[in-house]
Amino acid sequence: MSVQYDLAGQKKAYESWAPFYDKVYVKFLADGQRKAAAAAAACGPDILEVGVGTGLVLRYYPPHARVVGVDLSTHMLAKAREKVVSEGLRQVRGLVCMDACNLGLPDASFDAVTVPFVITLVPDPEGALDEMRRVLRPGGEIIVASKMGAEGGLRMKLETALAPLVKKVGWSTDFKVSRLRAWAATTPDMAVVDVQPIFPAPFFQLIRIKRAG
Ligand SMILES: C[S@@+](CC[C@H](N)C(=O)[O-])C[C@H]1O[C@@H](n2cnc3c(N)ncnc32)[C@H](O)[C@@H]1O
Q1: 97 lies in which domain range?
Q2: What is the CATH number of the domain that holds 12?
Q3: Could you tell me if the CB of 146 is within 6 A of ligand 1?
Q4: Ligand 1 contacts CB of residue 116 (under 6 A)
Q5: pLDDT of the chain along its 213 residues, tens only?
Q6: For the residues of 50-68, what is the DSSP string, one character each?
Q7: From the CB of 100, is ligand 1 less than 6 Å away?
Q8: DSSP run (H or E) holding 126
Q9: What domain count does the chain have?
Q10: Could you tell which of 118, 146, 173 is best to mutate to test the pocket of ligand 1, judged by most ligand atoms within 8 Å of the CB?
Q11: What's the CA-to-centroid distance between 28 and ligand 1, angstroms?
Q12: How many whole angstroms separate alpha carbon 171 and alpha carbon 193?
């Protein structure tokens, strides 16, 4: 299965999700979305959200922030644009169609990059993380919130077995925190500085990866 095929699959999955995504996820993901936005705002005002989707996280960034959101799906971005207008979200400076692995943004231009409920869906997560590091200023953080797979035991076996099925609807079950740790350990100046549970724990987690200042 090629990376290109996976990107097309993601676009198709989220074209279908766009009309009713908010109804399904607005409450379920709110804890992680709030905490991801707060962690990003603590780094500074310039924030990039990768995989901004319908913009459910945008309301949680403070008014003084300057947020740019990118997403692969034009259908999800259209919903985000509606929210910016209807909720008067002046902290949002731009919403652009872009692949996480090919960010058309300058080096070292953001204090924080948030990735809420996205990294597990990207066909080349390490490539996406490399791009996020490139656009991050020294001292900044990549903040990942997602469902993280178990590192062993029966849950890991179940999640591995279910992974090919759930991928078809744009979900993931088997991506693990250890994959983020391995990326940080082999990438200059990057370190995992915090892993904390978010609702519903222990399935979902928030991971902060800091670039040395
Ligand atoms: C589960 S939604 C999360 C949306 C939002 N961050 C939230 O918390 O509600 C995943 C989003 O990631 C986007 N996505 C998937 N793969 C992507 C990629 N390679 N580059 C950019 N966005 C991607 C999808 O289009 C979708 O809008």
Answers
A1: 3-211
A2: 3.40.50.150
A3: no
A4: yes
A5: 344 447 888 888 889 899 999 999 999 999 999 999 999 999 999 999 999 999 999 999 999 999 999 999 999 999 999 999 999 999 999 999 999 999 999 999 999 999 999 999 898 999 999 999 999 999 999 999 999 998 899 999 998 999 888 877 767 788 999 999 999 999 999 999 999 999 999 999 999 999 999
A6: ES-TT-TTGGGS-TT-EEE
A7: yes
A8: helix 125-135
A9: 1
A10: 118
A11: 16
A12: 26
